Structures are given as structure tokens and as C-alpha cells.
């Protein structure tokens, strides 16, 4: 059978496709089925999307969605359903943690809760045998009009999971994306990653990591068969287990030998580990700073780390020649204007090589979503509100929408200042182009 995955793009600039369908495609291929990917751009006419889907003639449509992709995804799948009777399975963060709302929406027939590899194969096999595509008893799959399903244990052993089908990722320029683990042990209240661990309580252990050998084997296969110039590790926190990281560093430089980027928490690194990573080829680390207010991080976000520690880690990172990127969050429930000023102050102390800044959105499934809901901060139509990163949908008692907008502008100005300083000596035309790029990124949210 043929499965068509839709990638619902939310910005015009190129980005790698969702990795979930790439894992699902590899699993389906191993079971004797085929899969394709169709990217849907933000401004693509719905009639053109329907025409493209019709041309593929899929037996099943799959879509992986975050909350940010939800509104556009709903629009796209509604248009497809109006013209085609093809069963649609929705998975990913948003369907997992807001399944009822997805199933109530025209165009969606099944929601996959949690991991989808085994469930997707079972579903396609069920349909290929002539089973009803809109009704079945398959663990992890919630069919419209049926009871919430049981969850199957997480895929084990994780090293036997097929490598991603990279034909679905739309990778370019030899830059390859990798994951080495699933699950996150940290209790950050704004993030849904930990909630997958909670989802599987009583079912199995969701937090798993591939062996170093498995990761190296995949990279060597990519290097043999395709261009490989750089690796981006997508794990939420690459630096959790030092023994694993040290073994990885020993192998990566000798066997793979290209530059790589990763995400880390300042609590999980030290000077020795950073030196090992730099020696292995790490040239870029993104750190989630989130707030410059220790109170906000400690009491609201459940991030117990001092500003001094963050400053030290950024200094250590940059002294080793590794580019350090900071991510900041604005408009968290309980945050004040004074807290935002503390974030700006910490930013000045850090002097990161680059940074991202995002207005908080209460993603379904997160602890802070429940806080917002219980405190009446969410609008009734919150699922109708766009999940962008430049404006808040919340009615916050301690921060006005005007203050959040002003803070967002201050960070945009700071990024413009950083970019202009980095490219000092350019012509006025080039500087204007930099300003336009910064404004474009800020407007995209």
C-alpha cells in the first residue's frame, strides 16, 4: 500500500521536514509498503494541494503536527476531505496531547498517540487485508467515535528501529539530521518532551538511547551513499549521559570526521566535556537559557540553575571556538516586566554568538498549559489562535500584550545590533539587507 505524508510548512524559508514520517516510512518500507512526502507551503492554494494529492493517489494520508502546524493542517486536510475520501492519520505532539479536538475536526479519522512505528504498520496491514480503514482495534490508534486506545510499550530495542528514510527529509547541501534518543528526563514545565515519558507511565520506559555503534553505523552509511558535510543532532539534550558522550566523541572524530551541532543544557556540561566535544568536531551548541530571572526559571520553569553558571558555560564554550546560541522565552505566566529586564541583562553578560527569542505559547500536554487552563489565562478559542512566537494568546495579570510586544521589539533590536556588529564595514545596501532579514525572521515568529 501507498502512504502519503504531508509536511505542513509554517514558514517560507526552507527547513528540514518532520522526522517522524521519516521513521514511519522506513518502518513501512521494511514491511513491504511505500511512502512519499508532499510539502505544503504556507501560501499554496488549497486546490493545488488537492490536485497534487490526487496525482499521488495514496491509500492512506499521514500528517505529523505540532500546535504551530495545527491551523494550517486543519485547513489543508479539510480541503482534501471535501474532494477525496482517503483515510487520514494524524500524529505528533499536537494530536497526541489534543486528540479529542483533532478527531472532532473534519478531515481527520484517526489519531496516533505517542510512537507510531508499530501502530502505522498494523494499520496499513489491516487496511491492505480489506479491513475497515475507519474502525479497528489497534493499540495507540484512536479512531473517530471509538474509545481511547491502549498504548503499546515503546519500541524496543531502539537500535533495531530502521534508520530514517532520508528521501522524506528534504535535506540539502550535505547537512544531515540525526536523533540518538527518545524521551527527556527533565521536568521543564513549558516543554512537551517530558510528557511523553509521563504518557507511558505504567506501559514502559519511554526514555531510551541508541548505542554509539548504532549512531556511527548510520552516519557511515550516509557518508558512503550520500553527501555528508555536517551533522545536526536534534536531541533535546545531547549531553545527558557523560559516559555515552565520551564514547561518542572517541568514535565520531575518527570514523566520521565532519563538523556537528547539538542542543545542550548548561547543567549537563562542564569544561572537560566541552573540550571533548570541540576536539570531536562540535562547532555549534544551542543552549536553552529561557529567562534571565532565576525566580522564573526555578519556580515557574523548574530549571534550577544560576545565572553565574550560565555565564560560565557560555564563556567556556566560546573559548573553545564553539559557536554558542542562546534561546530566550518571553511572556511566561507569572513573569513580570522586571523579569524580562533581567533576561536582557543576562543576554548582555552572555554575549552569545547568536540567539533566538520566542513568546511563550501554552502547548497542550505541558505543565504550563494546565497552569494556564486552571488559572483562566487561556481564551476559550485557544485552539483557534495561531501558535506563533511573536505574540501571546494569554490574558496575563502581570504582563500586558503591549509589554510583551515591546519586549519582543527589544530583542529584535538586540539581534539587529549583533548582526550589524558582526558584519561591520559593509555597504549601506548590505546593511539594509541584514536589517530586512532580521525583520523577516522577527515577523515570521
General form: globular
Strand content: 15-25%
Q: Figure out the total of helices.
A: 16
Roughly how many Å apart are the termini? 38 Å
Helix amount: 40-55%
H/E order of the elements?
EHEHEHEHHEHEEEHEHEHEHEHHEHEHHH
The CATH topology of the largest domain = pyruvate-formate lyase- activating enzyme
Annotation, overall tally of beta strands? 14
Class derived from helix and strand content: alpha/beta
Instruction: Quickly name the level 1 CATH class of the largest domain.
Output: Alpha Beta
Number of domains: 2
Describe the structure.
This protein is of the alpha/beta class and 445 residues long. The protein folds into two domains: 2-143, Response regulator (Rossmann fold), CATH 3.40.50.2300; 174-444, tm_1862 like domain (pyruvate-formate lyase- activating enzyme, Alpha-Beta Horseshoe), CATH 3.80.30.20. 42% of the residues lie in helices and 16% in strands. The chain has 16 helices and 14 strands. The protein has helices at 19-30, 46-56, 67-83, 93-97, 99-103, 117-128, 193-199, 212-225, 242-255, 271-280, 294-300, 307-319, 337-350, 367-374, 401-422, 428-444; strands at residues 2-8, 34-40, 60-64, 88-91, 110-112, 141-143, 175-178, 181-182, 208-209, 230-233, 259-264, 282-290, 323-330, 354-359. The strands form three sheets. The chain has a six-stranded mixed beta sheet, with helices on both faces. It has a six-stranded parallel beta sheet with strand order 7-10-11-12-13-14. It has a two-stranded antiparallel sheet with strand order 8-9. The longest helix is centred in the C-terminal third of the chain and has 22 residues, at 401-422. It is globular. It starts with a strand and ends with a helix. The model has no long low-confidence stretch (mean pLDDT 95).
